[in-house]
Amino acid sequence: MNTLDSHYDILVAGGGQAGLIAAIVAAEKGARVCLLEGAPKSHRGGNTRHTRNLRPLHNGPLSVLSGTYDEAEYWDDLMRVTKGKTNEHLARLTLRQSSGAVEWLEARGVQFQPPLGGTLHLGRTNAFFMGGGKQLLNALYRHAAKLDIDIHYDAMVSAVDMENGRFKSLQVGERRFYAKAFVAAAGGFEANIEWLKEGWGDIAENFLIRGTPYNRGDLLRILLDQGAQQIGEANQCHAVAIDGRAPKFDGGICTRVDCVSLGIVVNENAQRFYDEGEDFWPKRYAIWGRLVADQPNQVAHVIIDQKAKGGFMPPVFPATTANTIAELAGKIGLDAETLQKTVSDFNEAVKPGNFDHTSLDGLHTDGLDVNKTNWARPIDQPPYSAYSLRPGITFTYLGVEVTDKAAMKMADGSTSPNIFAAGEIMAGNVLGQGYLAGIGMTIGNVFGRIAGNEAADYALNH
């Protein structure tokens, strides 16, 4: 036998939440498992490193969550953001099985904390990780070590050997790994600008990638080239508006700008272009990356006044501030006269009402080409502040189609007997477009558990 060959019951590619959970579930069922993480140990965990919470269904108080968030409300929220572009069977499966996500994680060392406030509005719906995604990862990696799961870092899959949809082995560098079953959980292709350009065109060159730089879609491309059935489109993704000063890659959640609903957003021509108060921020923040991408040079600016301070989670970069709108315009490179008119027109259009950012308060403007439907207050209390905005891509939705057993479907209509998928690489089955805060982690948790269970059952019985 070649000393570079390795044999396991199950191979898992991808060391984020979905892959870790699949590996843990399989190992707990008695399978010999190997986890291949493409990143170095210092950057392990994919986009899970940058997360803060997941969104679980609960029909009563759950851990740090109070109240109820039942299937009907959850489904309605999902329909509002995806506009029905989802596989209903898989989506409802995800919502129902999410009810066990928090308990499963807590039993393996993950800790949760009371929810954050401000514009997030997630106190009843989302469970926040104590210490964020890195704490979750560290807890799960500790648990994986107790289960003797073999973990390899800097282990990017370079080739997969399949026959009639059946996994046989894969290549990492000069080493060949064999297994009875394979779980693909290596994320999307958001860090691959050339691939993004296939869906977006040349404007993708101006995108910032708030997710991990290691998600280049290598495994996804290999599987599609080997006959996996594609789900989703190349220009559908989780794209939010982030601070324009963020790094090109790996900026993470701290670069997100969460005060859009408390102010106005203008493009580089100092013109508003969309309703900032359309809905609660967690149901709309993920449309703003796409909106900014459609503006000249893919740049925008959010303008707030002193009244908005303290009402949102501040990003890592400080705002640009000034005592007048004209001065602010000069500092952010906008035409002062135009921005003054935009703000003045907005202020004059605000109708009387009671501001309440915890509800859809109906405080709106009237008579503008683009009206604001909630939380509209005059921007008239200095100092004024601005954050520059650029499209920030978190993860992509184009992936592989799966069954409700997480088995990968093939383009010829068959289903792979021993290849399973979990996490971002299959999230497009549930997310055809749009995004709901925390649901990416929910999909990874649910399908990680399903994939690990099904892979173990196959490997231990064949």
Walk me through what this model shows.
This protein is of the alpha/beta class. The chain folds into 2 domains: 5-236 and 398-459, FAD/NAD(P)-binding domain; 239-392, Flavocytochrome C3, Chain A, domain 1 (Alpha-Beta Complex). Helices cover 26% and strands 20% of the residues. Strands 1, 2, 6, 7, 8, 9, 18 and 19 form an 8-stranded mixed β-sheet that branches. Strands 10, 12, 13, 14, 15 and 16 form a 6-stranded mixed β-sheet that branches. A hairpin with a 2-residue loop joins strand 8 and strand 9 (175-184). Helix 9 crosses helix 10 (336-349). Keywords: FAD, Flavoprotein, Oxidoreductase.
How are the secondary structure elements laid out?
Layout: E1 5-13, H1 17-28, E2 33-36, E3 53-54, H2 71-82, H3 88-97, H4 101-106, E4 112-113, E5 127-129, H5 132-146, E6 150-152, E7 159-163, E8 166-172, E9 175-184, H6 193-200, E10 208-209, H7 218-225, E11 230-231, E12 237-243, E13 264-267, H8 288-293, E14 300-304, E15 320-322, H9 325-332, H10 336-349, E16 384-396, E17 399-400, E18 407-409, E19 415-421, H11 439-459
Parallel strand pairs: 1-2, 1-9, 2-6, 9-19, 10-16
Antiparallel strand pairs: 3-5, 4-5, 7-8, 8-9, 11-17, 12-16, 13-14, 14-16, 15-16, 18-19
